């Protein structure tokens, strides 16, 4: 009888630990992002905020600091703008007016320090008009 009780306790403890690990893995793998205007609404002036932010590159705002390695630009959405700094590898689709998602840390009144820069693929493809 005592042996059976130990097996039940061991089994339940193992199941609970496994459930916790699965729940934590699914939760951390979920990819959510906020828009530029949502980011500004949620930003607390007293501390930095980690986030994934989606928007469009403001045309004419791209400033290369180290050619092909470091850049500053602005992204916009919903009438709000967000200054962004990024250093790293750039996707081929990164250009003026491109839809992008940046991941990093932002603080009120300072540029958003991105550690990840993703360009979203266009939803509509058009044929080449040259023939």
Could you characterize what this model shows?
There is one protein chain. The protein is elongated, with a radius of gyration of 22 Å. The chain is 27% helix and 36% strand. The protein has a 5-stranded mixed barrel with strand order 2-4-5-7-6. With 131 residues, it is of the alpha+beta class. It has 2 domains: 1-30; 34-119, OB fold (Dihydrolipoamide Acetyltransferase, E2P) (Beta Barrel). The protein has 2 helices and 7 strands. 15% of the residues are buried.
Any descriptors?
five-stranded mixed β-barrel; 7 strands; OB fold (Dihydrolipoamide Acetyltransferase, E2P); alpha+beta; 131 residues
Break the fold down into its secondary structure elements and pairings.
Layout: H1 2-29, E1 34-35, H2 36-42, E2 49-57, E3 63-66, E4 70-77, E5 80-87, E6 99-106, E7 112-119
Parallel strand pairs: 1-2, 5-7
Antiparallel strand pairs: 2-4, 2-6, 3-4, 4-5, 6-7
């Amino acid at each position: 009888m005592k042996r059976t009780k130990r097996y039940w306790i061991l089994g339940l403890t193992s199941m609970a630990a496994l459930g916790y690990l699965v729940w934590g893995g699914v939760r951390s793998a979920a990819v959510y992002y906020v828009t530029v205007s949502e980011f500004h609404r949620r930003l607390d002036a007293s501390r930095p905020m980690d986030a994934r932010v989606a928007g469009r590159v403001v045309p004419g705002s791209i400033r290369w600091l180290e050619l092909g390695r470091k850049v500053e630009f602005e992204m916009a959405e919903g009438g709000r703008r967000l200054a962004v700094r990024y250093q790293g590898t750039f996707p081929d689709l990164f250009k003026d007016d491109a839809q992008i998602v940046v991941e990093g840390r932002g603080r009120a009144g300072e540029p958003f320090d991105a550690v990840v820069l993703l360009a979203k693929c266009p939803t509509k493809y058009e044929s080449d008009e040259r023939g």
